Amino acid sequence: MARTRIPPVAGGLAAAVAVALAAACWVLFPPTVDGRASAARPAVDLPLPWPAEGQASAEVQGLGSLGSRGEQRPVPIASVTKVMTAYVVLKDHPLAAGEAGPRITVDEQAEAESTSSEESTAPVRAGREIGERDLLALMLVPSGNNVARLLARWDAGSQDAFVAKMNREAAALGMTSTTYTGASGVEDSTTSTATDQLRLAREAMKNDVIRAIVATASLRVDGVPGDVVNTNTLLGRHGVIGLKTGSSTAAGGALMWAARAPGGALILGVVLHQNPGGSPAAGLRAALDTSEALISAIQRELPAATR
User: Fold this and answer.
1) Is 82 marked active-site?
2) pLDDT for residue 4 is more than 60
3) The model's pTM
4) What HEC string does 156-213 produce?
5) Where do the domains of the chain lie, and which CATH numbers do they carry?
């Protein structure tokens, strides 16, 4: 095969482009002392009260990263897992805004699990038909683990088959430090990082149905007694419009959150591993408190930093 000869001018131009790209990469991803690439510098550098423990990451859409803190190593994420569950279900069974979706029959397993005192559940009864959207709400708002597993079985035939889909989606999104082992997050073996979960938050908030459900403070579902109340108590404060809480003894407290900045830009953040080893309730309170301080500071500092 004949060789293609690059003219001197074209070859020089190619070399110049390569040098320029290498320089740009050096600026954006400066090497660490051991030669590995470091994380990108924040696009917007604000004085923020990052959590003293665990890990966190945040960004402003349209502006870029606000940075990350803490060692980004995989840790249990508890019910934050359910954001990926909703993402996969809606990718397989998309709904238009306001659409109820197909009616799904509650099975005996979901009813049996609804009385568990060991995990968060939603009170559903076997044989009752509930629309897809309402089941997604029962999973995301009060954090019903039994509903997450019911949706997984409905979507893929078994929870194991559904988990395989979750991990494929994580890989497709570039979540290289994430492993899902269940649809609800009750398993401590489901682990991720704040930076990985921030990638998911970015995609989840593009979905009209997820965005509407996670912004709901409380709702009623036919056949489910009483008001269904959101575990995310930051809703409506500091511009918060979602996303999802998580808590367990191993995970501590976790929160994936979305808020509107002054001017309307979407702020996304994830806080993980707050007060691990303590009670789940104490961990969740810590995650909510540290997230509230972080969101409040971003709301305060961002306008001046972006003028």
Assistant:
1) yes
2) no
3) 0.84
4) HCCHHHHHHHHHHHHHHCCCCCCECCCCCCCCCCCEECHHHHHHHHHHHCCCHHHHHH
5) 55-305 (3.40.710.10)
